[in-house]
Amino acid sequence: MKQPCFVAIGGTTKLGSTTERALSAALAHAEERGARTILLGADDIALPHYAPEDPERGDLANRFVATVRAADAVIIGSPGYHGALSGLVKNALDYLEDTSMDDRCYLSGIPVGCVSTAAGWQAAVATMNQIRTIVHALRGWPTPMGVAINSIRGSDGKDPLASQNVQSQLQMMIDQQFEFLNAVHARLPNDRC
């Protein structure tokens, strides 16, 4: 199998956000497995409101869609804002409509890791469920392991991302994406790889 390209999409406009750091940690696990990685963080997805009736796209939107088109695996991460994914992330995902006429429509045939962060479990889990629903609508294959992270620091004051549990979950999610890619690769004719 060729070196897979993992693309992570998400984050917040806050520098060093928990979501973006979680995506970076997931990509680090993918790099350890030999993947090429790209993080499309807040600066890369701060796109104008998606307007399907306007076929003109700016350079930023064109780069975003082209990067996702080239991905072998995708990770989507969003903060939970009031129990839902952020408008920033949802708007970026709406731009994938531009791939609707591609041979590989939307996220068809791509393993997608789902990561959510929130200041509490309720919003983290609700956001995770919404990301999974969107991935299904985009014809992607969400990994069995999704990672919902409660970003509230514990009584010890430690960063939740530093916990072994969170890192193990991110690693398992990445491992499942590689398992998917290996299974698909084994079924494809050699000339497609």
List strands and helices in order, with pairings:
Layout lengths: L4 E6 L7 H15 L3 E5 L1 H4 L13 H11 L3 E9 L2 E2 L1 H8 L16 E8 L2 H17 L3 E2 L4 E4 L13 H24 L6
Parallel strand pairs: 1-2, 1-3, 3-5, 5-6, 5-7
Antiparallel strand pairs: 3-4
Helix pairs in contact: 1-6
Describe, in plain words, how this protein is organized in 3D:
The chain is 41% helix and 19% strand. By secondary structure, it is of the alpha/beta class. It has a single domain (5-192), classed as Rossmann fold (3-Layer(aba) Sandwich). Strands 1, 2, 3, 4, 5, 6 and 7 form a 7-stranded mixed beta sheet that branches. The N and C termini lie close together (7 Å). The mean pLDDT is 92.
Which CATH architecture is right?
3-Layer(aba) Sandwich
Mean pLDDT: 92
**Basic shape:** globular
Approximately how much helix is present in the residues?
40-55%
Which band does the percent of strand residues land in? 15-25%
Task: Give the tags.
193 residues; alpha/beta; Rossmann fold; 6 helices; globular
